[in-house]
Design a protein that fits this description.
Layout lengths: L1 H14 L12 H24 L19 H17 L2 H29 L1 H9 L5
Length: 133
């Protein structure tokens, strides 16, 4: 169920901005939104680079993964939050909340899988590194 909600909300997050307008009004919303959005893009690029370079056993604790378990999910959230500010859309923000809630349940599932696959080394990683920021 979480996966279906995640996929539908993800689709909505990618389609909805095309239906919304960004006003270049140089307001606080614009500056905050642009800053958050660009930060999200940077986090996304860095986390994808880091994700592509795991250790030989498949576990990854390098780069942003040294600081939190889920940098790509955090990057997506930050990017979409920036879009919510830029578009000043409460509907988009509500879709983002649904997306993030579903993503959290998927993350919990992924953590269970990692515990099964990597055992104590993943448990130690969980104990010393935060799930999110």
């Amino acid at each position: 169920m979480a996966y279906t909600i995640y996929q539908l909300s993800n689709l909505a997050l990618f389609i909805t901005p095309f239906l919304l307008e960004i006003k270049f009004d140089w307001s606080v919303f614009f500056y905050v939104g642009m800053t958050i959005y660009l930060l999200g893009l940077a986090l996304c690029a860095i986390s994808m680079r880091d994700f592509a370079r795991p250790y030989a056993n498949g576990m990854n604790t390098k780069g942003l993964y040294r600081y939190f378990h889920n940098p790509m999910y955090v990057a997506y959230f930050v990017c979409f939050l920036g879009i919510a500010f830029l578009t000043k859309s409460m509907i988009f923000f509500l879709i983002l909340v649904i997306f993030q809630t579903a993503a959290h349940w998927i993350i919990l599932s992924e953590e269970r899988w990692c515990l099964e696959k990597f055992g104590k080394s993943y448990q130690d990683y969980q104990d010393r590194v935060r799930r999110y920021i």
